[in-house]
Write the structure tokens for this entry.
Amino acid sequence: MLRSVEQRRVAAGEREDPRVTELRAAVARLRRQLAAHPADFPDRSIAEEELAALDALAADGGGDLPRLRRSLLLVAGAIGSMSALRRGVQDVRAAVELLATAPPRG
């Protein structure tokens, strides 16, 4: 069965932390926006690699906050001031900060 980048298999009876779900959704949206962005820029591959790393970290539960923040910083630096992608970067940042500050819900 094929899955989108926003889905992962969760063990029977296990619920994914909603904060992790939000991070995965924000990363997936930004990946799609970046893929659809027509401009080629020097650090595009860095942004793509770090978004993949963010997705992998989120799939593992998002517990490595220093690594999440490092990847976020690299994504923001690689994308720079591209206004078309600004909202997506802000959404990923908000999701990372939510993991860092809020206790698990649910």
Remarks:
- Residues 1-9 have pLDDT under 50 and may be disordered.
- The two ends are 28 Å apart (CA to CA).
- Residues 24 and 55 are 6 Å apart (CA to CA).
- Residues 18-36 form the longest helix (19 residues).
